[in-house]
Amino acid sequence: MASVAAQTVGVVAALTVGYLFLSRKGVPKPPGPRGLPVVGNLFDMPTGKDWEVYARMSETYGPVMSLTVGPTTIIVLSTIEKVKDFFEKRGANFCSRPSVPMMDIMEWSRSFGLLRAGPDLTKTRKMFYQEFGTTALAETFFPQELDQAKTFIELVAETPENLVDHCFQHSGALILRILYGYKALKQNDPVIAKANNVIKIFSDASSPGSFYVNALPFLNKLPDWFPTAFKRKAKEWTPLYLDLVDDPLGTTYRSLADGTAEDSFCAKWLRREMTTEELNLMRYGAGGTLGGGADTTAITLYCFYLLMAMHPEIHERVQAEVDSVCGRDRLPNFTDKAHLPYLQAVIKEVVRTHPAVPLAIPHTSLEDDIIDGYFIPKGSVVFGNLWQIAHDPVAYPNPFKFDPDRFLGDSPQRDPYDYVFGIGRRYCPGRLLAHASIFITFAMSLSVFNIGLAKDENGEPIVPSIDSQPGIVSMLAKYPLNITPRFSPEQLEVLLAA
Ligand code: HEM
């Protein structure tokens, strides 16, 4: 995904018409760095790990700060209380998404994560809630989660050096299965390849640096004969999204027709009477979810492997817990979860260490508002700094220490599940599915592998770090690891077949 700052600038510049109010009726905007005339804080905007830059700025300007770029106000919230004040208490005003012109031109803005406030958003969220919104509903997908986790283990056992690819293959395959009942090939699946291509175009097309129209939306009014790169590219890319969406959906239709369909989001909906409008919401909703669900879970899974290699004493302890509960003659399953408190604490510490969507997806306000005595103009772009909340030294003493024990005992520290999936009306609709997937892949990985440090050509250990990369969904820097199976190939085959 493009850097959050880059996307912000696009969003910001998209709102070109308007006058920059420094205050409304004498009410000041939240504090922030002093900007330059016309461009405002353009040159203060972070270009790397935005969440860390904003966290440092908040030490000076406080938990609600503002920046301006051109006519647009950017609000950054850095405590859980403030995120709740905006996204929960004033949820009706802060539940929309900012416009990204190139996405609008390609009609990709209809995808779930970019939907603006309105009936389509309400209906789409309801459709997803109806299938994934409760623990009982998420449990109906446990068989698919188990099956795909086994395929992941098989792949890692075969080629551990390709761990990162396997994490992405796994999360892509799982989401396709849950959404469409589509069973991806074990490797080089054409739909996963299409999805990766669309995710990359999505990232490129929303970056203002790639297309001037993101910064100057009036360019879209130029006549079609006028040569513009963005119109040419938009024409080429527009169909790719629906192609991605409709390709696996074809599988759902076919399997429904021949009676072989397994339960999936689309199969469940298609079995009901649907209006054309609902059918389209289902198509675009599922397509958007492909992007939202795949990278996030893959990165969290990779993060777990890195952290296990970096912390052998924690790896040993959590592996011993898994062994003691599940034994060595079967793989873990979902019924083991309640008996694995230390693993559950490890999971919380992994998602706290690296929230995969560190600034959430930007929200925007529908109306002018006044909060805490500050004026928040209509159309402000609002970020909740989830990464900063996860590293708050008051909630988490010694926040950069990987310490699952912080979630055990009589007074556990704040549960990161309260915020890493977002807060308020746009919280992640896939959180329960993601949680199940994280649990089962972590548990199986511990049961089957020892995860340690790789060595360089001089025999020295290569020590990874949790080095988050820029982007709305933040990848981690890649390191080689030493992953060794604890079973012979024959034993593993028997375990996976059970
Ligand atoms: C570790 C895994 C995951 C993390 C950390 C995560 C986190 C998030 C966050 C922070 C948001 C934005 C919330 C906001 O804007 O306030 C979000 C939105 C979203 N997530 Fe997830 N997510 C994960 C997995 C998934 C999965 C597995 C799915 C699908 C099954 C999914 C589907 C979505 C969708 C569709 C949205 C957009 C919702 C909207 O705009 O209303 N996510 N997620």
UniProtKB/TrEMBL annotation:
GO terms for molecular function: heme binding; iron ion binding; monooxygenase activity; oxidoreductase activity, acting on paired donors, with incorporation or reduction of molecular oxygen. The keyword Metal-binding applies. Heme binds at C428. Pfam families: p450. Transmembrane segments: none annotated. The keyword Metal-binding applies. Pathway: Secondary metabolite biosynthesis. Belongs to the cytochrome P450 family. PANTHER family: P450, PUTATIVE (EUROFUNG)-RELATED, P450, PUTATIVE (EUROFUNG)-RELATED-RELATED. This is Cytochrome P450. It comes from Cylindrobasidium torrendii FP15055 ss-10.
